[in-house]
Amino acid sequence: AWKKFTPKPFDTAEEFNAEAVRHIETTLARSMYNCDEGAAYAGTALAFRDRLVLDWNKTQQAQTFKDQKRVYYLSLEFLMGRALDNAMLNIGKKDVAVKGLSDLGFRMEDIISQEHDAALGNGGLGRLAACFLDSMASLNYPAWGYGLRYRYGIFKQEIIDGYQVEVPDYWLDFNPWEFARHDITVDVQFYGYVSKYQDDDGKNVSFWEGGEIVQACAYDVPIAGYGTSTVNNLRLWGSKAASGEFDFQKFNSGEYESSVADQQRAETISAVLYPNDNLERGKELRLKQQYFWCAASLFDIVRRFKKTQRPWKDFPNQVAIQLNDTHPTLAIPELQRILIDQEGLDWDEAWSIVSKTFGYTNHTVLPEALEKWSVPLFQHLLPRHLQIIYDINLQFLQYVERNFPKERDILSRVSIIEEANPKMVRMAYLAVIGSHKVNGVAELHSDLIKTTIFKDFVKIYGPDKFTNVTNGITPRRWLHQANPRLSELIASKLGGYDFLKDLTLLHKLEAYVDDKDFRKEFQEIKYANKVRLAKYIKDTLGVSVNPSALFDVQVKRIHEYKRQQLNIFGVIHRYLAIKAMSPEEKKKLAPRVSIFGGKAAPGYWMAKTVIHLVNQVGKVVNSDKDVGDLLKVIYLEDYNVSKAEIICPASDISEHISTAGTEASGTSNMKFVINGGLIIGTCDGANIEITREIGENNIFLFGNLAEDVEELRHSHMYGTYTLDPSLAAVFDSIQSGTFGDAGAFTSLVNGIVDHGDYYLVSDDFASYCKTQDLIDEAYRNQDEWLTKAITSVARMGFFSSDRCIDEYAEMIWNTEPLVPSKDE
Ligand code: 26W
């Protein structure tokens, strides 16, 4: 009989090094004579991975054995960032590794930064999925993530001559955190046609035949919880050519090249993450990605359920599937197809199971982001699914007609099929109809979806189908890992690190808001974080910034609705003001560093123009002797998760200034406040709830409200509207060539002056500038500023993703944690 494997303990630096060296010399077959930082990273990662893997196996065994209801989180994006620091935190023993590495001549910081970010996401939605995985594991929920294993994640951004240039992100070179499960594969079908048969009982059955098969291969990533031995699984699917007889014949008949081409075509499906954020483009390959991933995941989930030999009616009691936006909506018709075409259930029985299984989270109300697929494309790629969608639609519309007989045009409004040319499948409607709960991601957003895009559905289903779960962030990564000194300071006052598991404990910090030593230490930490960012700016851009200046940060995807243009126009306004100041006036002004970062979708011209303008302004301002330290403008290249971990702790003010009603939640607003930074923001997304929690005195709100947006837009189009004079002055300076070729920025200016100013930049400009002046004034009183910052941190307890996950579990999933037993 075999004995259970237990890894060698590493309670001392020597023991840790023995394990790391063993991996470097055997697993990697490298010599310690030329052990560089890369090798040291690999050895460290593999040593910690050993411990993770054993807990992972145990967790999976226990979850199978207990067979409680599981959660499956389907997301086309998981923006994980780096894994090593997180693994060390969850396993413990980081201190031992720090000592061991230092004995070998390495600094832990350098070793950690060897790791390539896992950047399988665009922005907010992908990072939220990553925070949710962390929380589900930390709270011991039996939960799996399902996604795609892109060979190329989000592109790497280079700024060349002030322009964004996209470079492929090949991140899989060495990835110790994934395990290829070559034995776990699923054949996924595309194209073909539908045949009708009569079965033995004379029942009509449909069957999807022909077409091509692509194989999905599972790659598993362990997701460790904090302060628990639970390690959940993230399963990512990679695509390969199916190894069928067909290929074999090709090989034998000498068609070697075309067989290789088949292989490459299949691998294309999971090759690249689409870099659009909030923009739907209707590309066939994207629909292929979505079906490939949904089909493989559903097959896997159903296979696991069938092993338990339970009756089908138990399915929704055993399985909760959460749809992260509409991207996985095909899972709905796919499950219906499996149940009726393959398992032989009748329609109603199947639909009752399907519609109890799914929950749908909406992340945007922007019309250009709502997914629609053309019916002809659907017909071609997924003929059986299109039939099923038509049947779902028919049943639904009949129900609506029965209940609202007098409202004739409601049917065309709520139909899954949009009567356009070509006809389109509205994925959001399918997601609503096929789910038992629909949620938005902040209070305002959840209200808005009920009164705008899903208004008719509220009438049809009643308001209870719609709910809110305000977003959150994991305090492990966004407080403890990003800002270890602040975390340590908090722990010293709260008597330990329990707040990392229950963030509401932060409220106890309010007792220290007047504590001299605490305040001093808090301020020193912020300063040290700013020094670190200043060094990073110097090293990467060669620009010196003064760490005592006010650091004003806006880092997020570049999008017109997020209004980086408002920010840079504000910066230009400030620049013009400084140029007109007397030396006395200059003395009174607080020096500022305006920091921008974020990627533009490669085809988003306006966003790229904004990046260009920021860089041009930086070029002029940063070398203007009249300005000196009073203003610096910085564009940080290639903003990503690991850079956010350096940037968030170093801000004094961060900007969350979307047109009211457009940003569903925002999550970086939470990351900045919890790190002791104040924010300037509009009454939008989670800013509103942040204000409610931390208090109006601790946030700089400005601008028009969501309820006024429609009328303002109308007034731009039809009313008499005059441009704000200081914004006009900003435009004059741009158009006179102050920041280089004026022609490059014409479209940006014209969008506001001539084309309706859809995002209401001019309407909010005066209020924005006034609020920036208030910030200058507030920053002069460092004592009060510090009080605001500390008070805010103390009141951020609500915004933990742990709270989100408990809410999802209670309101939507109906699942319980499975707490691992100690003695196993
Ligand atoms: C089909 C193209 C496409 C791609 C991505 C459409 C929409 C998306 C995402 C839904 C965009 C996104 O990341 N939304 C963000 O989700 C965050 C998490 O809920 C919110 O905090 C942000 O406000 C929201 O913009």
TrEMBL record:
Enzyme class name: transferase
What reactions does this protein catalyze? [(1->4)-alpha-D-glucosyl](n) + phosphate = [(1->4)-alpha-D-glucosyl](n-1) + alpha-D-glucose 1-phosphate
Residues recorded with modification N6-(pyridoxal phosphate)lysine: 671
Known cofactor(s): pyridoxal 5'-phosphate
Task: Check the record and name the Gene3D superfamilies matching this protein.
Answer: Glycogen Phosphorylase B
Report the GO molecular function annotations.
glycogen phosphorylase activity; pyridoxal phosphate binding
What's the EC number here? 2.4.1.1
Offer a single GO CC term for the protein: cytoplasm
Which family is this protein grouped under?
Belongs to the glycogen phosphorylase family.
The protein's job, in short, is:
Allosteric enzyme that catalyzes the rate-limiting step in glycogen catabolism, the phosphorolytic cleavage of glycogen to produce glucose-1-phosphate, and plays a central role in maintaining cellular and organismal glucose homeostasis.
PANTHER family, per database record? GLYCOGEN PHOSPHORYLASE (PTHR11468), GLYCOGEN PHOSPHORYLASE, LIVER FORM (PTHR11468:SF3)
This protein is called Alpha-1,4 glucan phosphorylase
The organism is Mytilinidion resinicola
